[in-house]
Amino acid sequence: MRVLTLNPGSSSLKTSLVVDGTPVGWATVDLEDAHDAAGQALGRWSTVDAVVIRFVHGGSRTGPVQIAPDVLDALETLAPFAPLHQPRAVRLAREVFRSRPGLLVIAAFDTAFHVHLPEEASRYALPREWTTQGRLRRYGFHGLSCRHAARRIAELLATDRAEFLCCHLGAGVSVTAIRGGRSVDTSMGFTPLEGPAMATRSGSVDPGLLLHVMRTAPMSVEDMEEALYHRSGLAGMSGTNGDLRAVLAREAAGDPDAVTAVAVYLHRIRREIGAMAASLDRIDAVVFTGGVTEHQPELIARLAGGLGVFGISADPARCLGDGDRVISPDDAAVTVFAMGTGEDVELARDAEAVLSMERV
Question: In the chain, pLDDT over 70 holds for what percent of residues?
């Protein structure tokens, strides 16, 4: 089975060809133009059984679905809740339909992994008349990455009952508590804004502060959305575009804004790790994954250096390795792993599940 996976990020598209569950090729292309991005991917790997697209938000959907026009229209209505990613995925799907009519196109959802969050983790402390329909709740994101981590942890620890933390560190940042392969708490909520500070996103902010700014600036809802998604986080604190490499370079040069930005960034991640740890009975492992783990491994050692109270530590030399690996010292209380996100494999698994149902 040949599956083309399309994983749209905030500015680029990761594509991969997965054959019988094994990635055999990948590429990253610019996503500013859905026509060009889809064309490049389909041109590179033209003979496929299905295309599967990562959608950050699936609402209450519990698993992957074949995309039909009505499904795509429904997914487009969720764009305001994930504005950096959802519109790109929708445009990409429309372009695949246009350029390759008749090809099976499947949507896989990050939110599906978190759909069974316990009530105490999914509910906001808001008026009942707001929340009774079950839509104003914490959805959680980075679910495909978390699901891959859960699968690998079960293999590496030889148990399906592991309790661990998955820390996805990329342009977006989240921490998820996982028990027995299921999400029991996560730092992202109704939107991917909640949680630690990120590349350009603010992370959690006192809503009273936002109300104050909107009253005194004044500013529109659209202006506030733009500020929180595009001009906050590392970008807002350091005066850069949010690229962690640039921020770290400025920090190394002694720029005070960059020094503070990195300190806040690490502190907020550690704080979420502590919060998620409280949702577990024990910590069997910690998984670091995402682009930061892959490209700035030395920062993972710094991050873990402030987590000793949880028995979490990392060997700086081991952080510099490749592939899925243990990065904690041999005598560490908690086993710490660095892993690839494996989102392409999870996307292909979802496509295969839909294809299997089609053939029944």
Answer: 98
Distance CA 274, CA 265 (A): 15
Tell whether the model's pLDDT for residue 223 goes beyond 70: yes
DSSP characters over 75-94? HHTTGGGSTTTHHHHHHHHH
Mean pLDDT of 293-316: 97
Q: How far is CA 90 from the centre of its chain?
A: 18
Residue 223 annotated as catalytic: no
- Nearest to 87, CA basis, from 57, 60, 64: 57
Is 3.30.420.40 the CATH number for 2-109? yes
Of the listed 73, 110, 281, 315, which one is catalytic? Answer: 110
Classified by CATH at the fold level, domain 143-338 comes out as Nucleotidyltransferase; domain 5 (3.30.420)
Indicate whether this model's pTM tops 0.85. yes
Q: How far is residue 141's CA from residue 118's CA, in Å, rounded to a whole number? A: 15
Interatomic CA distance for residues 262 and 172, integer angstroms: 15
Check residue 12 and give its pLDDT: 77
Order of strands, edge to edge, in the sheet holding 285-289? 182-186, 173-179, 163-169, 285-289, 335-338, 325-326
CA distance 230 to 192: 12
